[in-house]
Design brief:
single chain; alpha/beta; Aspartate Aminotransferase, domain 2; seven-stranded mixed beta sheet; 16% strand; binds pyridoxal-5'-phosphate
């Protein structure tokens, strides 16, 4: 999308291969980043309230992160899982400290979809069954099983259809859930800690507690997709920890590597592994582990979980003062700001007039906010100030 609202042409020369054009892009060319800011080719500075789909957890190019990555780069970039890699154990030790999942095991992969793909496979291996319960509004990725449990027909190709037994339920409807598990044919239930792409709806604490109990009774594996809602984004390490439940499998990615591609699964101890059961060439590579270690190191050193809760309270207080804001959804720094009109124009104004990058979701009236967890009060305050300014302009021009 360019500054006039047209789809921007990719800036390519005639004698060069094109990028496969699948992304609607804003008309900005980002060249560098630091903390919560991005800079474009013209050296204009942007406030990043989107973190590149919620990936940037500790802030862009944090000096501790880049130093640890550079050191590992000089030492060793890659070896496969055919040998022991001590840095994997070091990462697992650190992740235990943060997540509290001492008796679980860790499987590392490269992306969110791959994490969910493996989680669903494990549920089927473990139970010998194949029906999965997912929820309306879900997004779990674009690969085969992950896509099958994603509630979006539009991104599903003919090859993806009809191969999986999936039952989509309304979130927080225990009656539907009880009905769906009656047949004793369900291997797993997959649910996001908070729905990201779907528009910030979440399973309630009581719903999570109830389904966790039913899953345990029936031998169904509960898979918590914490790919977006995890890694401190809500103020707890995982969003499901607000409910005090322990899922069977937790999937992670996004904030885990702060931009270095990295995903993972935490797997409860009753699920037994065997050689060849899961596998990956790149998953758990030393450079990814170094990125993962750096993220956790900075989270601790900079007290990022406390910062998330503090900034959440501050921002909500500010947003509540704006009459056009009809609802604030989500937790911590995974927030949806709801209006009673489409936010498309507002997002463009925020970007092109105020240099603030925000996110959207499948709800056209909802702005999605996923800033780096390191953002300060002074930095986030730029957002409500700009929002008020944009809203008054839109009202003047009768666009809302
Ligand atoms: C909740 C959730 N699960 C899974 C994914 C897929 O992750 P990836 O794009 O790394 O495959 C996403 C991506 O947005 C997500 O938000």
């Amino acid at each position: 999308m360019n500054r006039d609202g047209q789809d921007a042409c990719l800036k390519i020369k005639n004698d060069q291969m094109k990028l496969f054009d699948v992304y609607p892009r804003f008309d900005v060319e980002i060249e560098k980043a630091d903390g919560v800011y991005l800079w474009d080719k013209q050296n204009r500075k942007y406030l990043d309230l989107y973190g590149g789909h919620g990936v940037i957890s500790i802030g862009h190019t944090h000096p501790v992160y880049t130093a640890i990555l550079k050191k590992q780069l000089d030492k060793m970039v890659f070896y496969s899982n055919s040998v022991y890699l001590p840095i994997q154990e070091k990462f697992a030790e650190k992740l235990t400290e943060f997540s509290g999942y001492k008796d679980y095991s860790l499987f590392m992969c490269n992306s969110g979809a791959e994490a969910n793909e493996n989680a669903l496979k494990l549920a089927s291996f473990h139970t010998g069954k194949k029906k999965v319960i997912a929820f309306k509004g879900s997004f779990h990725g674009r690969t085969s099983a992950a896509l099958a449990v994603t509630d979006n027909q539009k991104i599903s190709a003919p090859i993806n259809r009809d191969g999986f037994l999936v039952c989509f339920l309304d979130l927080n409807r225990l009656d539907q859930f009880n009905q769906a598990v009656k047949g004793n044919d369900v291997c797993g239930v997959i649910v996001e800690g908070i729905q990201g792409v779907g528009g910030l709806d979440a399973p309630s604490i009581s719903f999570l507690k109830q389904i966790s109990k039913i899953c345990r009774q029936k031998g169904i594996l509960l898979i918590l997709d914490e790919i977006q809602s995890g890694y401190g984004r809500t103020g707890k390490f995982f969003a499901h920890q607000f409910a005090g439940i322990k899922p069977d499998i937790i999937t992670m990615a996004k904030g885990m590597g702060n931009g270095f591609p990295m995903g993972g699964l935490l797997i409860q101890p009753e699920i037994k592994s065997w050689h060849g059961m899961l596998g990956t060439t790149f998953g758990g590579n030393p450079l990814a582990c170094a990125a993962g270690l750096a993220v956790l190191e900075v989270m601790k050193q900079d007290n990022l979980l406390e910062n998330v809760s503090e900034i959440n309270r501050y921002l909500i207080d500010e947003l509540k003062e704006i009459p056009e804001v009809k609802q604030i959804k989500g937790k911590g720094l995974m927030l949806g700001v709801a209006f009673d009109f489409p936010i498309r124009e507002m997002r463009k104004e925020l970007l092109y007039q105020h240099q603030i990058l925000t996110g959207s979701s499948s709800n056209p009236n909802l702005l999605r906010i996923l800033p780096p967890l390191s953002i300060t009060r002074k930095q986030i305050l730029e957002f409500p100030i700009a929002l008020k300014n944009v809203l008054s302009g839109l009202t003047r021009n009768k666009q809302i």
